[in-house]
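Justification of resources, computational component.

The compute hours requested in this renewal are based largely on the per-chain cost of generating structure records like the one below. Each record pairs the submitted sequence with a full structure-token output. That output is archived, and it is also reused by downstream analysis tasks.
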Amino acid sequence: VDQWHLDYVYLNIGRNINDTVFEDVAFTGSMGSLFVKYQSVPWKHYLLNPSLFQTHSTVELKYVNLSNITKNVNRNLFIYDSFDSSVAFSYSGGNLNLLPFANEQLNVPIAHTFSSALTDSALFELRGVINTTPDINRMNDTIQFFQRFLNYYAYDDGSPENGYGLTPANSKLAYRFSINTSDTLKAVQMFFNQTYQNVNQKNFFLTIWNGNSAPDQIIYEQANVTPMFEDELNKFHTYFLDPPLVLNGTFYIGWRQTTADNLNVGFDRNTVSNENIFYNTDGTWKTSLYEGSLMIRPLFGNLFNLGVNNQNDKKMLNITFYPNPLSQDILNLHTETDIELSNCEFLLYDFTGRQVFSCTLDNQIILPSHFTNGLYFYLIKQKSDNKLLSSDKLMIIRQN
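The structure output for this chain reads:
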């Protein structure tokens, strides 16, 4: 059951059965996080001591010459601060004569410390660019990775290739994290794969342990928790802690099962953190042998709720927008509540809490094209009495 990715289909006039060579130089691999351990870390934790977060010494740019002639290729790597689109880092690999059908890899040396005018959260774009002329497909001459500094830790890249679960009943799963400061754990995000006939809809105990080399004492537990699904592709569900938990150092997030059913949490095979995955099916904790990362994330500190008093009020009218992340300029409204759109106002705020856009709520909202990539927040208010109806985050990630 291998997964294969179709790169592109090339249609043109004047072609024939022997026309099998593309005059195209293309990237053959993606970029990942600059951090050795994490895909994402909280910005405030990073700013306390950046040296504690080990980074890769090089970034690999892999590309190929798909044509039957030598191509002269220019190679570059950039890091942009999405807050103001400024260049935080740049590297020129110069030009290379790439032989026909040859694969090549540029190892970009990098020792970069992230900095930004923002203090709460930040977003950076890593962009690899190759350039050659002529070239029939410019779309595969740029690769991107967004280094996120929000309010959570993530080992995973946000996309599950498999599912992970345990058996028998009373099995335990624990995922190890370590933080360098005291902070309040407000919530845990989990992504569960949907299963045929919802066979993984079973109760479990959301559990947090302390411990050094393995889970030790339970310091928090929440009963009657079930796998929950969101209405967007690969979107995590947020389980809020009541009350929030102050942590420092090493801790473990996971569950205690009530049945022998596979809960099927998302398992990312493109990142490897199984040394932090612990399971207990027979009374003894063991580390997982399967290479990959669980799609479980701890959320700290600010929940970016923009003044909403509590999480139960966050989406009182179940108003959402799609697509989110947004790669174009058009937001589409989704609501299961009958409301008079003309009586409601849409307000958009940037990282700093500055209002950058407002309009009357509608089924489609066209945002200005000059907005930079990054995290935004929106409010839906009633015009008559300024009552808050809904709020949430919006990520803008336009492809360049």
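The two ends are 33 Å apart (CA to CA). Helices lie at 43-48.
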